[in-house]
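Worked example 3 (structure in, sequence out).
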């Protein structure tokens, strides 16, 4: 699929992204708390390089960190800034490709790339380019936090769909609203990449309004992604699982090594 399809997917989803959560504010607080515990320092300079509408970035700002957000989706990054301001927080955002981050060398203490964002990149060259950029903008010994789906399990089973999830969103203008979401997965012949169709159903006038958005992912196994991080200049990569961290996805945790001239 063309590169612009990822930006289009999230531009189109930006206004409705919060509807995949039963309580988005609770998820913001929970995810921010889990990541804050891994950062382990006060007022860290954090880059969320796939900030989306701000779930992790706002959660970390609530914890007192100095957060910058960037995202390929212009609409998502703009909404993240708006949502942060609505909560009385400062969040600088930029529309940017994680393979070409518009920030100086050594600018951040921590880089976050969450919500299975890195696997939108479909080749080792592109993943390496993104990880190298994350390494570049980190200070030496800076912290990398990347979350993905449980791809080791998914590569064994290659599911073709996710179960429907029904959320009751209580903060909409007209009171409680139900939203149903599910996904269909179409695996490529290589057995690693898959096209995803994201279905979101909203009640409207006694019927259901259906929105379908499409994008592509690469099911990167944990060892392979850890190896790519090491090649990009990170040291001591390790995977921390949800039952340990309280974060909803497995997290690759690594430190930026020294630059080698």
């Amino acid at each position: 699929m063309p590169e612009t399809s990822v930006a289009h997917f999230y531009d189109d989803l930006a206004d409705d992204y919060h509807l995949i959560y039963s309580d988005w504010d609770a998820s913001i607080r929970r995810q921010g708390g889990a990541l804050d515990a891994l950062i382990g320092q006060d007022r860290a300079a954090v880059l969320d390089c796939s900030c989306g509408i701000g779930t992790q970035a706002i959660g970390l700002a609530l914890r007192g960190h100095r957060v910058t957000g960037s995202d390929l989706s212009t609409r998502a990054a703009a909404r993240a800034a708006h949502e942060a301001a609505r909560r009385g927080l400062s969040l600088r955002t930029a529309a940017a490709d994680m393979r070409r981050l518009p920030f100086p060398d050594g600018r951040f203490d921590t880089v976050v790339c969450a919500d299975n964002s890195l696997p939108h990149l479909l080749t080792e060259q592109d993943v390496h380019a993104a990880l190298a950029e994350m390494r570049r903008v980190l200070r030496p010994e800076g912290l990398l936090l990347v979350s993905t789906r449980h791809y080791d399990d998914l590569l064994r089973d290659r599911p073709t769909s996710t179960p429907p999830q029904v959320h009751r969103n209580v903060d909409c203008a007209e009171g409680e609203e139900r939203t149903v979401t599910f996904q269909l997965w179409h695996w490529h012949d290589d057995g690693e990449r898959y096209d995803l169709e994201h279905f979101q159903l909203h009640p409207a006038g006694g019927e259901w309004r259906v929105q379908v958005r499409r994008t592509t992912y690469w099911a990167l196994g944990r060892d392979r992604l850890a190896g790519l991080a090491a090649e990009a200049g990170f040291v001591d990569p390790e995977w921390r699982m949800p039952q340990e961290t309280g974060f909803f996805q497995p997290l690759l945790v690594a430190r930026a090594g020294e630059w080698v001239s």
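Notes: The CA atoms of residues 148 and 244 lie 15 Å apart. The chain has two domains: 11-149+220-256, 153-218.
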